Amino acid sequence: MRPLVIGIAGGTGSGKTTLTQELIRHFPTRVSVIYHDNYYRRRDDLTYEERSALNYDAPEAFDNNLMVEQLQQLIAGQSIESPVYDYTVHNRSDSTQIIEPAPVVIVEGILIFCFPRLCELFDIKLFVDTDADVRILRRVKRDVLERGRTVESVETQYLTTVKPMHELHVEPSKRKADLIIPEGGRNLVALDMLIKRVERHLGFSLDSSGRIDSL
What sections of the chain are H helices per DSSP? Predict the structure, then answer.
């Protein structure tokens, strides 16, 4: 059976990952996830300072050909070696991550709806829509605590590339979504609808305790 491929897009800090994690929590052994961030182009030709100055919120920053190829392999039932991006050095690491095929494949990223070849592979396209003030606060917290960035560098990047690229590319891409979800995984109504859609694809349901019952 072909897997159900779900694309989850939205601005930085919008709640995409929270929504993804909720789906993994409900279907822990039946979901594989590909993160668009891991497919940033490798830039060994540049120094750290030069890589730091790149625009990582522009469509051309990504190696989408590789992502399409590997997503097609997952859909065909083959495991892949996904690249792994290292935010501390602004480049891909030398490591890769084995991702196994699964009945449900989630593709998550801010710009995934900007690429027609990717969109063609999605069965469901979700856009997580969250207020800009909330998103920037989440981004500052994430980048400082998890990615070793300074508040000043996060502020500079947000004003020079993140915000203008969001307005130019990310925001318009939500017109391609099948469903726009305010607040992502915190939107319990939308989450319930999505879970039921996944259940129909898988052919099972969750009982009241959250355990999986086969139909």
Answer: 16-26, 48-52, 64-75, 116-119, 132-146, 151-157, 163-165, 171-173, 188-202
